[in-house]
Amino acid sequence: MAPELSNFENDSSSRQQYSAHNPIEQYVLLAKGAKGAACIELIKQVLEAPGVHVFGELLTMPNIEELQNGPHANYYNTLNLFAYGTYRQYLENQSKLIQLTSAMQKKLQHLTVVSLAIKSKCIPYNELLDELDIKNVRVLEDLIIEAIYADVIHGKLDQKNKQLEVDYAIGRDIRKGDVKEIASTLQEWSDSCETILLCLETQINRANTEKQKRIKHKEAIDQEITNLKKAIKTQAVESDEAMATDACRDIVGGLDLRKKPTKSKSLKGCADF
């Protein structure tokens, strides 16, 4: 959506900054005061301008809309084609459109690649050659490389499998009739996200439950190990005490055996006396 122009027109730096991020804006501003031949010249400029790949704002301008029912309807139709169509559609409807310059043709071909990339991230060379009306693979690859350098698409050429692998493509204008389909697609995506989140929460709860079971099992094993250690320690102490008691008895027994002969001698001496 274009910004409010009350202060925007008075702030040249803001206008320049906004135009840098939205190149079509400068043409929308020019279209406000353009009539007839000026509108035609404006359309020619915008179709050739590098960096301008969306045209919806310009199409909705009253001055531009007036062209579709007049003698210059082919200019409006061409602008509409650049907003929503492809190069193949241009070839099929040239009688209703203007003759494209080299710059216009290349831009429309770039936009056609974008439209194909929206449908598939891997586009075969054969499909590109047909849609772009190119007979030579080398010319096709040069066109794709130019589109990549123009930041229209990001990707790489797979010459072995003869296909274009697209990682990114700019957005194109959206028809009003496509809004419901887009909203439906977004709703399906949202529902899928909700389903995935629910599955993740279920898995997390299951994992937490298993974790708690393992923790309790480990605690029970640790307690058993502690009890066994205590029992073994108690048995070892009792065994040591028993051995000490037996040793004392042996010592006492040994002393008694040594004392008895001495006592006998004393008694015998007394008898002799």
Automatic annotation (TrEMBL):
<keyword id="KW-0963">Cytoplasm</keyword>
<dbReference type="GO" id="GO:0008180">
    <property type="term" value="C:COP9 signalosome"/>
</dbReference>
<dbReference type="GO" id="GO:0005737">
    <property type="term" value="C:cytoplasm"/>
</dbReference>
<keyword id="KW-0736">Signalosome</keyword>
<dbReference type="InterPro" id="IPR000717">
    <property type="entry name" value="PCI_dom"/>
</dbReference>
<dbReference type="Pfam" id="PF01399">
    <property type="entry name" value="PCI"/>
</dbReference>
<keyword id="KW-0539">Nucleus</keyword>
<dbReference type="GO" id="GO:0010387">
    <property type="term" value="P:COP9 signalosome assembly"/>
</dbReference>
<dbReference type="Pfam" id="PF22061">
    <property type="entry name" value="CSN7_HB_subdom"/>
</dbReference>
<protein>
    <recommendedName>
        <fullName>PCI domain-containing protein</fullName>
    </recommendedName>
</protein>
<dbReference type="InterPro" id="IPR045237">
    <property type="entry name" value="COPS7/eIF3m"/>
</dbReference>
<comment type="similarity">
    <text>Belongs to the CSN7/EIF3M family. CSN7 subfamily.</text>
</comment>
<feature type="domain" description="PCI">
    <location>
        <begin position="1"/>
        <end position="171"/>
    </location>
</feature>
<dbReference type="InterPro" id="IPR041481">
    <property type="entry name" value="CSN7_helixI"/>
</dbReference>
<dbReference type="Pfam" id="PF18392">
    <property type="entry name" value="CSN7a_helixI"/>
</dbReference>
